[in-house]
Design goal:
mainly alpha, 5 helices, single chain, elongated
Length: 109
């Protein structure tokens, strides 16, 4: 996504791109696990170095764990799916509120 240098949203856009990548990895793991870096890269179209980064972050967050055959989702992640959905909905609510506030603020000018 193209953003101007001065955009106040640049950092959050970058974070959202990273989040979308993490979600793509989780989506593949929900269908097929264990799975390794190369196969994840092929399945998602995401470069291997970005897959490695996502796997590292997802492991730190206790969403995945490594195995000999590749990454697997943790039981903890599966057990908390309702909370994950609620968190995603909360993020959407906050983003919508920010967009509405910005629109109102700038339409006044």
């Amino acid at each position: 996504m193209y953003m101007k240098e001065y955009s106040i949203f640049r950092e959050i856009i970058n974070d959202m791109d990273t989040l979308k990548r993490h979600i793509s990895v989780i989506n593949v793991l929900l269908r097929e696990q264990p799975i390794g870096i190369i196969k994840l890269s092929q399945e998602t179209g995401i470069p291997e170095h970005k897959i490695r980064y996502s796997l590292r972050i997802l492991e730190q967050e206790n969403i995945i764990s490594p195995s000999r055959e590749g990454a697997i989702l943790t039981p903890d992640f599966i057990e908390h799916k309702e909370q994950i959905i609620a968190d995603a909905e909360k993020v959407l609510e906050e983003a919508t509120k920010i967009a509405e506030d910005v629109r109102k603020m700038l339409e006044k000018k």
